[in-house]
What does this fold into?
Amino acid sequence: MTDSNAARYPLLALPHIQLHGIVDDAMYARFKEQLAAAPPDGPLVVSLTTLGGDPEMARAMGDSIRLLREYSGRDALFLGKVAVYSAGATFMSAFPVENRFLTRNSRLMIHERSMTATLQLSGPLHTISPVLRAKLNEIADSIRIQEEGFADLVRGSQVTLDDLKRRAPDNWYIEASEARDLGLVLDVI
It folds into this structure.
């Protein structure tokens, strides 16, 4: 018989909210529907499998978890299954490390936000500077949002923000047992 921590965390066996696929508007809608249908008392268990998606939708789902904790005092547990990549790690960061779990052989992938943009500069010179400043402001704000999420992800772990910022540009893949050893999750089941 394989060693298993599952018996230590029986609530994780039947998540109230089960999400899989791309993090997008449709996942956010499924999240809200399942959250509304979840029992009103006791810890809420959310499982996620994703290769990534829209970080803003991940932040919106995470904000719902934060508000649930702050306004009701209710605990919420995160269970990552198989792949918790990109926006999935952003969502996971909304849960305190002591409420995060991964299944065996799962992996996290953390990377920097990316942007693809083409600027068309045309017209009188005095109209070009505001277009450039607006794009620079967008980039600067996106970096601030990214760093806030990175700080939430590593808070309470052994990973420093500087270490995460150093590793993120290369797509940092972290196996479940390593994530546990680094304190990014409480345990592996």
User: Anything to note?
Assistant: Residues 21 and 50 are 5 Å apart (CA to CA). Helices lie at 25-37, 55-72, 87-92, 125-154, 161-167, 176-181. The longest strand covers residues 76-85.
